[in-house]
Specification:
about 90 residues; mainly alpha; 434 Repressor (Amino-terminal Domain)
Amino acid sequence: MNNDSYMEKHSIRTPGQLAMVLNGYRKKLKLTQKQAAENVGLFPKTISALENCPDRSSIASLFKLLSALGLELVLKPSSTERTGGEW
């Protein structure tokens, strides 16, 4: 996946996918973890946790990082039938 693809819509179904997309967007915007954290009042270690193990991070922190990256969360019905994956 190249950097340009991070400006597209993503279907995220696992914490690992979320981590990869958040990291990609931050890097595409040329923000360090420290800069992204300072933009929304988080610690850099919180940004690191969201990008490495988001399943252990708070929803509030996720929304703050989304704000720092100019992103919004959109929920929609799944376009694929569930076959017993990670969730």
